[in-house]
Design brief:
The first copy, chain A, has 323 residues and is an alpha/beta fold. In chain A, 46% of the residues lie in helices and 15% in strands. Chains A, B: Its cofactor is Mn(2+); Mg(2+); pyridoxal 5'-phosphate; Ca(2+).
């Protein structure tokens, strides 16, 4: 089965990504909160990727992928498929590179994320809200225009870019016992787990996944990519499925996937807004939710949590009564 | 008239304050946003005091005042009057010093700020919602208990502590043309203007004040403390009046007070949440609102803005329809 796995990124690719994105990406702050430490019963280190450009860690991978391409490869523009943060990140990276971008967006994607893609000057092309329709629309575009596809997570350069989150985190907090990152398609978790286990082999790395979109958990258990589950979760950024490449990296470097229900995510999100004073989207709050749902596992430990994004519609907060 | 002004802090007091609070206070991040720069037409540097301990710059002054006192002075505890952030900051500083604190709170103070005071272990004493009642209740407490009063802004050590905001800001952004800070009682503005004008004499310093609580603006125009205006503003942290001490410092170091209406404050607050991904309270957003209301004044300049606090009731956001 491993024969079918496309080339995996190595630690050196993450170091190269860090150098490549340095002129463009932010080194995001690592914040702490004594009151959240008290609530959690452990020492929390929050990597604030909600403060990354375009409002999510996705800019790291998109920027690395777009700037890794040679001029010929980008001459006909960049294409991707995304219902959210990767689309805006790719649009920004393309604008910085000076090449046109098109983002295939499924019907039903959050309006605020569509607006962010458009604000970066990318063209939006709609498709039906299924993975098959997204892939078909993207393939058609690539064929028709000759544009270069940068997949949201099934891409070696994208994964290497996401891994730079862990480089910065462990540089500032070298004594971490545990690293927690959200998992959707697995780009962030595979990149950060590769970096973290290389820099600090004894660290424990968990993915945090919505209980209503538990395909990564199932995929690791069964040893194959489960792609036919229907996602039901408030975490709009975590509805993707693993690809063989991200599954292979998770199998090597991740110690477990922790499942969290949506109510716990909403409560953790509110706690981050109240205590850390940070606007974090549901997908970004799931790491803290995973800790609070299983305090004993983390008791007394040094825990790094990736707050992956902050793009949220302020008129539709999960704790507001539905109008 | 100057004969009646109590002792003013000097720049050295601010340097001493920085050293005194260093073990306890956070050096807060200075954040930037290209999209907000584009909207404003100038270069904005946001000093994130919403990320300070207790969620506001107030901890700097309270911490400096409480730790400047000798053991005898604090032996019977600390007292203050506050409807909000100073109360929580003083309560936290007192807890760190290991002395009991009592906060006199007017009826009608925001519930979330009361909860923050109680969470730090301070005793709360209620009084009628007038400045006279607050002062009377505080005086009575001091007489009865022998506790030491730390005024929210009319206090040399408190002002010196607030001034440390500008030390950090100018250390990280030494080329600022303009500094903007909110003004209520004037503790933050007087301390930061003293520090900024000492470090960088050519800098322009503005206070930003709600149009519905424009007593500082009127006081500077008339050259005396106006204390009989009724405040009507969403900026609950900016309803106080200047004291002779803060007025004297503002007369020396501040170039003007910019008035901003509440709608502009709410819009700026939402923009900070959306673009900077920061939870900022209305009082903390008024600096950005002042820039956006008067773009020509700031065009092309390097502008430092103090985001003074982030303590806000997430169920009562100013852009939500009233229930």
């Amino acid at each position: 089965m491993n024969a079918a796995v496309p080339p995996l990124p190595h630690f050196d690719d993450i170091l190269n990504a860090a150098a490549r994105i340095a002129p463009h990406a932010r080194v995001t702050p690592l914040l702490r909160s004594r009151s959240l430490d008290d609530i959690a019963g452990c020492s929390l280190h929050f990597k604030c990727e909600n403060l990354q450009r375009s409002g999510a860690f996705k800019f790291r991978g998109a920027c690395n992928a777009v700037f890794a391409l040679d001029d010929a490869a980008v001459s006909r523009g960049i294409v991707t498929q995304s219902s959210g943060n990767h689309g805006a990140a790719l649009a920004l990276a393309s604008r910085l590179r000076g090449v046109p971008a098109t983002v295939v967006v499924p019907e039903g994607a959050p309006a605020i994320k569509l607006a962010a893609i458009a604000a970066q000057g990318a063209r939006i092309e709609r498709c039906a809200p299924t993975m098959a329709a997204r892939t078909a629309a993207t393939d058609t575009l690539v064929e028709r225009t000759g544009a270069h596809l940068v997949h949201p997570f099934d891409d070696r350069d994208v994964i290497a870019g996401q891994g730079t989150v862990a480089l910065e985190l462990l540089r500032e907090a070298p004594d971490l016992d545990v690293l927690l990152a959200p998992v959707g398609g697995g780009g962030l978790l595979s990149g950060t787990s590769l970096a973290a286990k290389t820099l600090r082999p004894g660290i424990t790395v968990y993915g945090a996944e919505p209980a209503g979109a538990a395909d990564a958990h199932a995929s690791l258990r069964e040893g194959r990519c489960i792609t036919d589950m229907t996602a039901r979760t408030v975490c709009d950024g975590l509805r993707g499925h693993l690809a063989p490449r991200t599954l292979a990296l998770l199998q090597r470097h991740v110690d477990g996937i922790l499942l969290v229900d949506d109510d716990a995510v909403a409560a953790a999100m509110r706690l981050l807004w109240e205590r850390l004073k940070l606007v974090v989207e549901p997908s970004g709050a799931i790491g803290l939710a995973a800790v609070l749902a299983d305090r004993e596992r983390f008791a007394g430990r040094q825990v790094g949590i990736v707050l992956s994004g902050g793009n949220v519609d302020l008129d539709q907060l999960p704790w507001q009564a539905q109008a």
